[in-house]
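Protocol step 4 of 6: structure prediction from sequence.
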Amino acid sequence: MTEELQELYKEVIFDHNKNPRNYGFLEIANKKAEGHNPLCGDHFNIEILVNDEDKIEDIKFHGAGCAISKASASIMTTILKGKTVSEAIDLFNKFKKIITEEKSEDEDELNLGKLAVFCGVREFPTRVKCASLAWNTMYRALEQKSETVK
């Protein structure tokens, strides 16, 4: 990854941390989950409204966390609005792959879009949990599991 690209990714993460999108509470949510990383203190709630067509009509998060976890939650919510539940699960699996596995030759073909800003996280194993907390919590909400994601 070029230094210029790394700087761009940092700017995107800082922007989503300072100005998180979809931060707050939903008036009506039919899927909810809580996520907590006790090692660093990140703590988020994800609220989702899935309509009768199995599409994510709205999604919000609230809580507190480091810049990476907050940016991840913000970017995730912007990407998932309007997606079907199965598309959201596919994106969850793609996200897990890019932050935990070695860079593969087909990674460029994954059409990562905004998720590309998190490719560098795999270089810092202690930050993987920060980046993945919101995603794991969203997945748990879609599964309608009640226990807190840790």
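Step 5 (inspection) to follow. The chain has a mean pLDDT of 88.
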